[in-house]
């Protein structure tokens, strides 16, 4: 069983491409992902599962590490919540994206780092401990910074309630992480056994979210795919490049530089998709950038990790 899970995790980028292909050919296959069951939003529930699994892998030591390496953490978090949102904003303006796609792109830029960054950092021989700390810290402070920065960037263009977004992030992100932390604290041996399977389970859930969003927006994606795909690719490439530059200017070592670059480029695109659907229901295409970014970051990230690892071997 563990072998099957390892294969799924190793070839995740291929699996997500297959899921995307299926959602485009049979868009109704994943329609249930964006539906509700007994008043429960399935998309938010799936995302909470991913964050819960993240919580079960965290320990108090991961947060103590923040105090041990404040410079690297400070640089990484600053880049996450200053550089990444500005990249999204600049690209939306440069390509004159419509309101819906602008909102979606901004949300991709303002959400915290994605858990996949930890896996890619490991494959790229980066500083895994730093990556875990950056992901954890950026996620914990996201209920405050994500709504605030989003408001600053698009508040004059479209109305939304940042307080409601704060509550949503607490419910979707913070509560599941705390529950995961508690489970790891009370049953550490059990969680230690689960860690071999949880990354794969999270990957499958991400595939479902991406497939559901792409299937629901098939026509919109096919008619505007060229522009938005270019923007998404540029957002990732610019973030990765600036991450390397920022790390170098900050005087970090090679492992830390690679880690900051990966952390900056990898976003919690599932959360951006969920926030777009929940808080901008009239802008259906606002969910598209998050779904496409998830596909791109996992595909390009896997290739980059291989290149980094090959270079170091």
Notes on the structure:
- Helices cover about 80% and strands about 0% of the residues.
- It has 16 helices and two strands.
- The chain has a two-stranded antiparallel sheet.
Mean pLDDT: 84
User: How far do the termini sit from each other?
Assistant: 30 Å
Rg, nearest Å: 18 Å
- Overall form: globular
What fraction of residues sit in β-strands? Answer: under 5%
Structural class: mainly alpha
Low-pLDDT stretches are none
Order of helices and strands: HHEEHHHHHHHHHHHHHH
Order of strands in the sheet with the most strands?
A: 1-2
Task: List the topology elements.
Layout: H1 2-10, H2 12-25, E1 36-37, E2 40-41, H3 42-57, H4 60-68, H5 70-94, H6 99-110, H7 116-123, H8 128-140, H9 142-154, H10 162-186, H11 188-194, H12 198-216, H13 218-249, H14 254-265, H15 269-279, H16 288-312
Helix pairs in contact: 1-12, 2-12, 2-16, 3-10, 3-12, 4-8, 5-6, 5-8, 5-13, 5-14, 6-9, 6-15, 6-16, 7-8, 7-14, 7-16, 8-14, 9-10, 10-11, 10-15, 12-16, 13-14, 13-16, 15-16
């Amino acid at each position: 069983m563990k072998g099957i899970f390892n294969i799924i995790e190793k070839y995740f980028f291929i699996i997500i491409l297959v899921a995307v292909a299926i959602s485009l050919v049979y868009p109704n296959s994943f329609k249930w992902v964006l539906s509700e069951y007994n008043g429960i939003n399935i998309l938010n529930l799936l995302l909470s599962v991913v964050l819960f699994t993240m919580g079960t892998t965290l320990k108090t030591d991961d947060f103590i590490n923040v105090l041990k390496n404040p410079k690297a953490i400070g640089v990484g978090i600053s880049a996450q919540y200053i550089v990444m949102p500005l990249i999204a904003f600049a690209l939306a303006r440069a390509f004159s994206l419509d309101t819906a796609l602008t909102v979606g792109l901004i949300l991709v830029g303002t959400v915290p780092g994605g858990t996949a960054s930890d896996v890619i950092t490991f494959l790229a021989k980066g500083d895994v401990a730093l990556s875990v700390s950056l992901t954890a810290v950026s996620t914990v402070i996201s209920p405050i910074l994500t709504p605030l920065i989003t408001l600053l960037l698009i508040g004059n263009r479209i109305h939304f309630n940042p307080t409601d977004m704060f509550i949503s992030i607490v419910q979707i992100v913070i509560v599941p992480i705390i529950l995961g932390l508690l489970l790891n604290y009370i049953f550490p041996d059990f969680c230690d056994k689960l860690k071999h399977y949880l990354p794969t389970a999270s990957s499958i859930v991400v595939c479902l979210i991406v497939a559901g969003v792409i299937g629901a927006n098939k026509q919109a994606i096919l008619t505007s795919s060229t522009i938005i795909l270019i923007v998404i690719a540029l957002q990732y490439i610019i973030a990765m490049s600036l991450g390397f530059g920022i790390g170098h200017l900050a005087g970090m070592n090679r492992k830390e530089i690679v880690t900051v670059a990966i952390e900056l480029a990898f976003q919690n695109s599932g959360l951006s998709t969920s926030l777009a659907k929940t808080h901008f229901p009239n802008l259906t295409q606002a969910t598209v950038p998050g779904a496409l970014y998830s596909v791109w970051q996992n595909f390009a990230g896997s290739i980059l990790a291989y290149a980094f690892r090959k270079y170091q071997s």
